[in-house]
Each structure stands twice: as C-alpha cells, then as structure tokens.
Please model this.
Amino acid sequence: MQVKVFESEDMASGLQKIKETLGPDALILSTRTVRKKGLGLLGKSYLEITAAKDSPELSVQKPPVPKKKKMPIPLEVCDNEPDTVVPEQEEIVGINPLAREIEQIKSQLAGQEIKSIQTELNELKELFREFSGKAVQMPQVVPPSMPATVKKAASSGFMISRLLEAGVQAEVAETIVSCARAKYSEAQLEDEKFFEAFLVETVADLISVSGPLTAQDNGPRKVALIGPTGVGKTTTMAKLAAEYLFRTKGSVALVTIDTYRIAAVEQLKVYGEIMNLPVEVVFSPEQLDQAFAKHKDKDLILIDTAGRSPKDVVKINELNTFLGAGSGVENHLVLAAQTREKDLLETIRTFGKMPLNNLIFTKLDECEDCGVLLNVPACQSLPVSFLTNGQRVPEDLLIAEPINITDFILGKM
Model:
C-alpha cells in the first residue's frame, strides 16, 4: 500500500492531483482543512487529502506452508459471528501472527465505551453552528503496516466521497462518517445498501422544517416572500396560494409591494383572476397596514416583494420598514438552490438585517447537487418551509419534509 498526502485549494483540484499521481484506482483515506501556520485567523486555509493505492511490488510473498492433517477447528475460532467462513487448518497456521494482531486490537476495542447514535447526532447538530471559520480535526492516518486500520480508513474514504459528491461540506461528511463508525461495524458499513439507509436516516434527522401553512386564531396569517432578483418569488407565491386553497379550502388575499416591475404586478393579477383571489398593490407601509385591515377576515395573506441585491443594503433597509419587527409578518427568504453556497450564505447574512423565519429553496430542477439543502439551513439554524422544482403552478411545489429534502441531497429525486 502506497500512501501519499496531497494539498490543494479545493476537492476538485485535489482529486485531479491524486488521479495524476496515483492513478484512477486510488482510495481517499481522509481529508481535513488546514490553516497555514504563522498567520493566525488570517492564514489561508487549504485542503489536505490523504490517498493510497495498492502496490503489488510491495506485497509480501506468503512462504509455503507444509501440508498438515486437517483437524476439526474449535468453535471459538469463529468468534461467534454469523456467516463466518472457516478456513482449512493449514491456512490458519500461515496467518497466525496476523490473527493474533487482530485479536489484540479487538480486545483493546472491547473495553471502550461507544456512545449511542442519538448522542452523536445531537453533537453533530451543535457542530453545524460552529462551522463558520473553524476546521474539524481529522483522525491521523495510520501507516500501512497495520492492514486492519488501513482497511477501515479506505472504507471511510468511500463514505466521505459519497457525501462530497452530493455537495455536503467536508467537515459535515467527516462528522457523519465518524458517527457511523461509532455505531456500526466495518462489515455493515461496507454494505452499500446498509450505508445508504444509514445516510437517509442520519441526514433526515439533521434537517429542520416548519411544516405547511395553516390558519391561526388571532387573525390572518401574514407571509412575505423576500430575496434576490430572479429567484422566482412571484411564481412561488402563486404556488403557495393554490396549494393552500386546495389543501385547506381557506380564504386567501394577495398583496404586492413590488412596484418596481410592472410585469410583476400584472403577473400577480393574472394569478389572482385565475384563482378568484383579491390582489392589492401597496406603495408604503401605511398602505400595507390598510390592506391587512381590509382583509382581516382572510385566513392567509401572501405578500410579494421586489427582488433586492444582497449588496444593496439601502433597498433591504427600505424593505425592512414594511416587514420588520413588529409588522406581524413571517418572512420566508427565497433562495435559488443552484446558487454558489458562498453567495447563499452572504444573502442570508445581508437579509438577516430583517427578521427571518424560514427558507424556501427554488429551481431544484436546475441543480446538479443539492448539498446546500443541508449545509446552509443547518449553519444558519433556519428551518425550510417549501421547495420548488419547476415552473408549473401549483404542481412544482413541495412542502419541505426531512425525507424529500434528503432524497434531493442524495440524488434520489
């Protein structure tokens, strides 16, 4: 086994280096984020990837073993494990040193206390909140002179690669894999179907959702869609109205404060006519209060807003005068899922000057990987309310649930 450490700016370039140096059959043993020494928090971080490949020329030739009379093998040799294939006696004699080494490792691990999976998941949720600016320490790679340990590292590399391919952050992937190894045996985790089932259960448990829109007792529920330009707020609002009418048979009013685009107002009026819903156009916070008073008999009031660039702080502050604290409005921040994760986090930070209640992810049909559905909400401690995966109204709207978000992340939808 040939082990080599690579340094790169990101996973893509690191994988290219590994492929060029070790070939396409190389295994990823571990990854970790490292910050250059001497510069403190200002030091530039890079990705350190440890990879390995088999070296046939280094393999140890097994010496010939004299033939011995086959003897019955005591039951304790099977270690009480089901489906264990018992080798012939002469084969066991040839690997006795390795068998003793494995037994010693097993006896050492037997005395260690393994925490329950729920405790691991709770710790993982806490780690999400510390990801910004921090790196998680990765376990050190053990030299290839210990075959059992190298096998475990190679298995972990496969599991981490599976999560990285889904767009999950490296730190998150490593923590999930550590959680899996603390609960299950290597034999279980090497079973692809078993590991996929574990991933579905674990990722779903990490996702927070707010549930469908429902009426409230003290007047209409007021929900505003805010976010950058071009993320599909107006279409999403029409989908929400149609879904609510179909599911609850309740009453809905539509309000828009997007007076910057005539097309947006006309589009909303068309949706209102189709669904026989009133549409109000307001130009000031006072007019918005008047619209609320006018439709106080409604179950739900949906509010459309003009798109705002995350860099336009003035416009976002202006929007805050309509929908800020004390307005009684729930602000759902609409994000396009195919946007770079760095830009999504910056959008949340900027719009966070306003009270944010939920996230809505749109354009999932245009996304190659959906790891942001796990990375972004968890880092910001914000639940997800809805997902959209197309332009059709209302078919391409999904109420956010842990299982359907997990399916998007793992590429099952």
